[in-house]
Amino acid sequence: MHLLTIGLNHQTAPIEVREKAAFGPESVQEALTDLTQSAGVSEATILSTCNRTEIYCGQEKQSRDNIVSWLCAHSGLTRSDLGESLYQFPNEEAVKHAFRVASGLDSMVLGEPQILGQMKNAFQTAASVGATGKVLNRLFQHTFNVAKQVRTDTSIGENAVSVAYTGVNLARRIFSSLADQNVLLIGAGETIELVARHLKQNQVKHIIIANRSVDKARALSLEIGSEAISLAQIPSRLHEADIIVTSTASTLPILGKGAIEAALKKRKHSPMFILDLAVPRDVEAEVSQLKDAYLYTVDDLRTMVDENREMRLRAAEEAENIIDFQVVKFMRWMRSLDSVPAIRSFREGMNELKQVELERAHRKLGKGADPAEVLEQFARDLTNKMAHHPSQVLRQADIEGDASIILAAQKLFNL
User: Fold this and answer.
1) Whole-angstrom Cα distance, residue 295 to residue 289?
2) Where do you find CATH 3.40.50.720 in the chain?
3) 202 Cβ partners below 8 Å, 6+ apart?
4) How many whole angstroms separate alpha carbon 294 and alpha carbon 174?
5) Residue limits of CATH 3.30.460.30 in the chain
6) Alpha-carbon distance 219 to 398, whole Å?
């Protein structure tokens, strides 16, 4: 059995190509069935995310062209369209690639954990339609164990490397629990959306989203289960916020020192954590002078992000060492599969010899022969038949001067 992985990702293909090559959740099962029936593939798993599409295959005879042709037919892309976007990893390289992907070493954000869940879902889908077998089952279970070891034994996932995630982590340091805090998000763009999702993952119950377009704020609020208000309503609600995160395209500050100072008085100087992710800034710099206001800008976070990225890079080096060791371990198992047919055939042959001699012995016993003599003859005949063919091969090897067969026999039979 051969392993082969063919795919494309954010590093090799533009989004226009990735979109066409992607498999939607509703089409994966049918695609797997078609792939294993029509492309000379014994086993298959399809991993399709916004950043990558990869086909993991088990083949009796390794062939790339039939899989590429199948992918072109599915996606409507030509081989020319795919160009240099496609990569292929055979056998050992396929194993290493799977381990690296699951561990977050091949992701756009180094060490991100979401890809492991996506790989698990991809494997479960393939297994549910019978598209996997002995090899891919073993590969993916080993892959998940390696990813777990990397997470446990290195700090690859411990340090935030996005501004949004770093900001939420910073808030967690200031407040013992985010779940009980009131959060005001100002803006409704991509950055605020990411912050909102991170906050929901931390079980924050009350989030207010303020935006110039209330409809846009409402669309995001409905998605995460929060409240939407207009920018004009901020002054009357500001004092409710324990945490403020702002990221708008405004050319002028949204929050001034006076507004924050008034809110702090209403809060009886209970601290406010303010995260300004906008450029130009949404919060006047003078706010940092207020005793109970903890103001951080995007530059403050970028310094932390850069430091964290360096730590992840060092952790990635440790992860690569773990992966290299585990690849060797998996390939040792893969190579052992080559001996399985020979072992099975050998055992079947020995069982046939045993059965023939047993039947002969039973016939003699049925005729009243001495059991001791029958047993001795059974052992002698079985031994002679088992040794006959190997003895012939060894004699011929001696005549021909083939020392390799003699040495192999000595190792095989512990001579």
Assistant:
1) 9
2) 163-305
3) 168, 172, 178, 179
4) 9
5) 2-153
6) 84
Instruction: Specify whether the CB–CB gap between 322 and 154 falls below 8 A.
Output: yes
In the residue annotation, 72 being an active-site residue is answered as no
* 3-state DSSP assignment of residue 268: coil
Using CA atoms, how far apart are residues 383 and 388, in angstroms rounded to an integer? 8
Judged on CB neighbours under 10 Å (0-12, 13-18, 19+), 325 is: exposed
Catalytic pick from 15, 50, 279, 375?
A: 50
CATH class of the domain at 163-305:
alpha beta
**pLDDT tens series, the chain, 415 aa:** 899 999 999 999 998 899 899 998 889 999 999 999 987 899 999 999 888 999 999 998 888 999 999 999 999 999 999 988 999 999 999 999 999 999 999 987 788 888 999 999 999 999 999 999 999 999 999 999 999 999 999 988 776 567 777 888 888 888 878 988 999 999 988 889 988 988 988 889 899 999 999 999 999 999 888 999 999 999 999 999 999 999 998 889 999 999 999 999 999 999 999 999 888 899 999 999 999 999 999 888 877 777 778 888 899 999 999 999 999 999 999 888 876 667 777 788 788 888 888 888 899 888 888 889 889 988 888 888 888 888 888 788 778 888 888 787 788 778 7
Cis, peptide link before residue 90, omega less than 30° from 0:
no
Contact 390, 409 (CB under 8 A): yes
Contact criterion met (CB below 8 Å) for 144 and 122: no
CA gap 5, 100 in Å, rounded: 13
Whole-angstrom distance, CA of residue 222 vs CA of residue 194: 15
Q: Is 329 exposed, middle or buried (0-12, 13-18, 19+ CB in 10 A)?
A: exposed
CA-nearest of 227, 232, 167, 173 to 195 is: 167
Q: Please calculate the CA angle 349-354-355 and round it to the nearest 5 degrees.
A: 95
In this structure, what token pair is assigned to residue 357? 């001699």
At the fourth CATH level, which superfamily is domain 2-153? Glutamyl-tRNA reductase, N-terminal domain (3.30.460.30)
Rounded Cα–Cα distance for residues 215 and 219 (Å): 6
Rounded Cα distance between 67 and 6, Å, is 8
Angle at Cα 326 formed by Cα 61 and Cα 2, nearest 5°? 0
First CA to last CA distance, the chain: 32
Q: 239: number of CA atoms within 13 Å, CB side?
A: 11
